[in-house]
Amino acid sequence: MKIKIYVDGFNQIQAVNKNDTEDDTLKEYEVDDSLFNGWCSEVIKGFCYEVFEDGSLKAVYPYKDINMLMAIQNIYEEKEKQITELQLALAQVFEAAVSANNINV
C-alpha cells in the first residue's frame, strides 16, 4: 500500500497522507508504507526523507530522538490494542442482548 508524505525544505516529514499544515511549499511524495514499518503518523513525522535530484530515494533517517519515537509508537500500539479489545467486548454484549431478547438482526 502507498502513503503520501509531505516534506519541508530541511527534508523533514511534516505531514502524512494529507497536507493539513497549510504549508503549500511542502513537497509531496508517494511511498510504500513498508518504508516506515507500519509506524503511526506521529512517528513518521519524526523522520527525514531525502531524495536525489531525479526523485529516487537517497536516505530516510530520524531527526528526532529514536527512543522517544519508539515510545510514541508503543503507546499508539497499546491504544490500538485497547480499542480492538473494547470493540470485541461491545460486540459480545450486543450479541448477548440480541440472543436474550430473541431479536433478529
Terminal CA distance reads 35 Å
Helix fraction, binned, reads 25-40%
Which blocks of ≥5 consecutive residues have pLDDT under 50? none
As an assembly, this protein is: single chain
CA-atom Rg in angstroms: 20 Å
What's the tally of helices? 2
Mean pLDDT: 93
H/E order of the elements? EEEHEEH
State the strand order across the main sheet.
2-1-3
Instruction: Characterize the overall form.
Output: elongated
Which structural class fits the helix and strand makeup? alpha+beta
What can you tell me about this protein's structure?
A hairpin with a 5-residue loop joins strand 1 and strand 2. The protein has a domain of 61 residues. With 105 residues, the protein is an alpha+beta fold. The mean pLDDT is 93. The longest helix has 35 residues. The chain has two helices and five strands. Strands 2-1-3 form a three-stranded antiparallel sheet, with no helix packed on it. A two-stranded antiparallel ribbon has the order 4-5.
